[in-house]
């Protein structure tokens, strides 16, 4: 393997692969570094909303849902017909699909099982040696080594879920503001399992209590936890910029997940692709990236207002999801 590259990308998740896919076939030499030996598997609920519509996820690798049902405490459920159907896909299937774009590219090398130990202005140190770069793209997730290197603070949400072996055919969201505050429970049916989980703000709910609430919810919905392993991860949502000299941050490394919904995949795909285009053309205006930031800030602005009004949360949620039944509101909020 060469030791000098025009572009080094750390992390072969959605953002890193999307960036490499844009650069594939160009005149630039690219190294995609992944710490795991297998690309794809990762703790993730696997939901894709409108932001990812044009990423062409094959139907045979995903499940598509034209509506979702929202439960708020004991109130009658609200069924929301979606402008753009929600998709669920495993991270492994998503990675395999997008890797097809770069596997045959002569200018892209992929180094799996390679851990980054440190970096300087123009090189990274790994357990397989040092690699120099002109441009570095950090797509190394919520615990990004590169984000820490550039001195950015981080804020996290937390997601816990079980992969229940039972089949399910309806996307569900359950809100209990008196207990979970701004968090929510979810049911995401996949092709071979159903992900049942809880997303929450660790400043207002402990992980131990969240686990108990999740297990009780699974019993209520008839999902067994026998043999299922609890999975969990952090969601990095504090965005403080994506470019720092010759270093770019993408996806969770940039804090581009939505604090409001916990979504990360759509934002990672958009940011990785847009950064790749900017590397190829320094004058590229990044319109998709800018639109994504507008949606993220809009969603999180609503959520900050919601979190600031604990006594009115049930009323605010009812009003919000009643409006979300309207196509114009879905479009405004990015769904």
Structure in a nutshell:
The chain has 335 residues and is an alpha/beta fold.
Give your account of this protein's structure.
Helix 1 packs parallel to helix 2 (91-99), helix 1 runs parallel beside helix 6 and helix 6 runs antiparallel to helix 7 (287-307). The longest helix has 21 residues, at 287-307. Strands 1, 2, 6, 7, 8, 9, 15 and 16 form an 8-stranded mixed β-sheet that branches. An 8-stranded mixed β-sheet has the order 3-5-4-11-12-13-10-14. It has helices at residues 14-23, 91-99, 145-149, 177-180, 207-221, 265-280, 287-307, 313-323, 327-333, and strands spanning 4-10, 30-33, 47-48, 63-72, 78-88, 108-111, 116-119, 123-126, 129-138, 156-164, 172-175, 184-189, 194-200, 231-236, 243-244, 247-249. 29% of the residues lie in helices and 28% in strands. The protein is globular and about 60 Å long. It contains 9 helices and 16 strands. The protein is of the alpha/beta class. It starts with a strand and ends with a helix. It folds into 2 domains: 4-42 and 92-154 and 237-309, FAD/NAD(P)-binding domain (3-Layer(bba) Sandwich), CATH 3.50.50.60; 47-90 and 155-234, D-Amino Acid Oxidase, Chain A, domain 2, CATH 3.30.9.10. The model has no long low-confidence stretch (mean pLDDT 90).
């Amino acid at each position: 393997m060469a030791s000098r590259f025009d572009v080094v990308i750390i992390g072969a998740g959605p953002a890193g692969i999307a960036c490499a896919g844009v650069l594939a076939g160009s005149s630039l030499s690219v190294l995609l570094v992944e710490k795991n030996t297998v690309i794809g598997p990762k703790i993730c609920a696997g939901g894709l909303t409108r932001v990812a519509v044009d990423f062409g996820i094959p139907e045979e690798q995903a499940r598509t849902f034209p509506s979702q049902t929202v439960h708020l405490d004991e109130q009658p459920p609200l069924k929301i017909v979606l402008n753009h159907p929600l998709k669920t896909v495993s991270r492994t299937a998503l990675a395999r699909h997008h890797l097809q774009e770069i596997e045959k590219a002569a200018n892209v090398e992929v180094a799996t099982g390679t851990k980054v130990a440190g970096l300087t202005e123009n090189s990274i140190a790994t357990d397989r040696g040092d690699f120099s770069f002109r441009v570095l793209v950090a797509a190394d997730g919520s615990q990004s080594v590169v984000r820490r290197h550039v001195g950015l603070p981080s804020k996290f949400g937390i997601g816990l879920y079980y992969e229940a072996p039972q089949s399910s055919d309806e996307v569900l969201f359950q809100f209990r503001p008196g207990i979970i505050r701004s968090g929510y429970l979810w049911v995401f049916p996949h092709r071979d399992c159903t992900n049942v989980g809880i997303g929450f703000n660790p400043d207002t709910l402990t992980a131990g209590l969240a686990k108990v609430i999740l297990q009780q919810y699974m019993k209520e919905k008839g999902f067994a936890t026998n043999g299922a392993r609890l999975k969990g991860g952090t969601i990095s949502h504090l965005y403080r910029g994506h470019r720092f000299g010759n270093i770019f941050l993408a996806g969770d490394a940039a804090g581009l997940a939505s604090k409001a919904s916990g979504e990360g995949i759509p934002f990672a795909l958009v940011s990785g692709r847009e950064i790749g285009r900017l590397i190829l053309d320094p004058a590229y205006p990044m319109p998709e990236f800018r639109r994504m930031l507008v949606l993220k800030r809009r969603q999180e602005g609503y959520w900050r207002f919601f979190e600031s009004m604990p006594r009115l949360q049930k009323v605010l949620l009812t009003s919000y999801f009643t409006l979300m039944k309207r196509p114009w509101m879905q479009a405004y909020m990015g769904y």
